[in-house]
Amino acid sequence: MSGLLEPLIAAAAPEQRIALQSLKLPGARDERWRYSSLRALNQRTFKHQPIVTAQHPDSFTSTTASLSPRIVFVDGHYDAAQSDIAALGDAITLNPSASSADAPQQWPFAIAAAACSATLDIRMAASTASPIHLVSITTAMAQDAIVQQSLRIELAANVEALVVHHRLGDADSNALANHWRALVLADGAKLHWLETADEGERASIVIGTRAVLGRSSHLDIGEVATGAALYRHDIDITLAGAHSQLAIRGCTMVAKRRHADIHIDVRHRARDTQADIVWRGIADQRGHSIFTGQLTVEAGADGADAALSNKNLLLSRQAEVDTRPILEIHADEVKAAHGATVGRLDEQALFYLRSRGIDEAEARRILQVAFARAPLLQIAPAELRDIALAALARSLPEDVT
Amino acid sequence: MLKIDNLHVRVAGKDILKGLSLEVKSGEVHAIMGPNGAGKSTLGYALAGREGYDVTQGTVTFNGQDLLALAPEARAASGVFLAFQYPVEIPGVNNTYFLRAAYNAQRKFRGEPEFDSMAFLKLVREKLKVLHLKDELLNRAVNEGFSGGEKKRNEIFQMAVLEPTLAILDETDSGLDIDALKLVAEGVNRLRSPERSFLVITHYQRLLDYIVPDIVHVLSDGRIVQSGGKDLALKLEDEGYAWIKARKLAEQAAFAS
Ligand SMILES: Nc1ncnc2c1ncn2[C@@H]1O[C@H](COP(=O)(O)OP(=O)(O)OP(=O)(O)O)[C@@H](O)[C@H]1O
Ligand SMILES: [Mg+2]
Questions:
Q1: Domain B2-87+165-256 belongs to what topology?
Q2: Which residue of chain A is at minimal alpha-carbon distance from B94?
Q3: Is the pTM of this model over 0.95?
Q4: pLDDT digit string, tens, across residues A177-193
């Protein structure tokens, strides 16, 4: 058993733990985890006991309070006292530990998260106009520990909702945060999801997001990924209902020694489904940005439209970018396009800006922001777009070069 | 104001400028003409500080300071402006945002207070009127999708806002229609003052009807081979560069004998 597995399943109920001991964490030869080595995590010593929710530090109280309506998690646990969903009335119901979100077999982290933490079941029965904020706080109590969170969000038929997930952590936190969430969209439902974070360089984050889309439903996912010591986000989408649509708009900005591994898997299962993914990455200093996007059009999913674009900027000798767009088609009358590029900052543009008086560091910053924000500008709900752009601006401090 | 002495510039391992000397006094307009590939743009880039344009010999003094020792942004802040022969498209960067960033960066460099967006917009509107540039261009990405002529006008617009003391215009007239050419010339003439000098690189005598130069130089094979008054441009228009080459050959023959 790898060093990480034991603490990862320590919080599970004793009767479950036996079964969980046969879980296999991705090893060095696992192609899907090729660029996200768990070696460092396996060698660390994590606290075994589950973390008891503590008062979170003041640094997050004001941020959290400014977000409303909100559902707050502290060190993986749903915190009813800090949450505020009064404004939503009957549109939403929360059921702590109602059902275990059935984690997929090939996702050991998700299985562990579902076993170790009470799944919060969120059901949306009516549309809401303004964004619902999910706030996940990793406190100082979680130093040297693993925090796990499990969520299930279901949108009833024709319901439209906006959700922003904010992950907040202390700048020097070294916790491993393991997030698992299952999204279920009934026919005609529309979910706009935005993932943002403020985490330090020492943190490790593993996220599994899985969604199943009903007939004519829409899922938009936006993300600004700034990486961590280890950052892995698996996004697994099944376009199960005819005419369902997925749009993903994201960017990765990694500098210092940060790592970010985005792994997207989309399956077109029904007729006339659409997936459109635009992701841009920037790796500076010793940052490592990884992107894998696999679009599979299954047999019978005729009329599918699958598009994937991943462009990257590599800004330093020590930085790394790995991109893998994969397209697999088993149906007829399919429209498909995919492309990936890795380039450098445009030297001509840089000189043009400098020749007008803008100093080199600022000129670089301007060009990077312009590059990274292109996908974010396509996030349709203005509130989510603004939050994404603000997150991007925060991720590029002026001294980035 | 500007004194270039025996300037040698190497680009990609090739010597392009081979001992160019030129002096521009305050308030003067100098035209530079010369065949394709002579090194005119190279001179502009070298003065603006572009990387890869290595000065292997010679000096450039600008208002008493060693221009070659300065970074491109410092040259801009000290008053050097290059209107590019091929303006660069910068997707995703708003034209107004870019220009304000440049304007404020220069002011900051000189220790002057920065302009807020309201004050800057007022300034921009005034300059726009003069150049009859479409408002809409301000809200687009820098030069992206601009027509050839729009790009050139955008260069002159930037010059009008930044008010440099030395403006180098690299073939700003090529690609402009007659009306635009007059507008650009008008923009330049408005800025003409005893404190401001211009280096106007052009292939066409026509521009010099509108922007009347004090001195015309011919740059050929990396050197100034001939300087004169405005009629030099007329003569070149009539006879082409062959005339200068022929004369040079004759001189060399005389020298050798
Ligand atoms: N980056 C480069 N790599 C190689 N050669 C270059 C480079 N830049 C300029 N040159 C060469 O230097 C010479 C001078 O170029 P320059 O652009 O200065 O000419 P020019 O006088 O401006 O010509 P034109 O009238 O066509 O604009 C040309 O032979 C050109 O091919
Ligand atoms: Mg040229």
A1: Rossmann fold (3.40.50)
A2: A370
A3: no
A4: 999 999 999 999 999 99
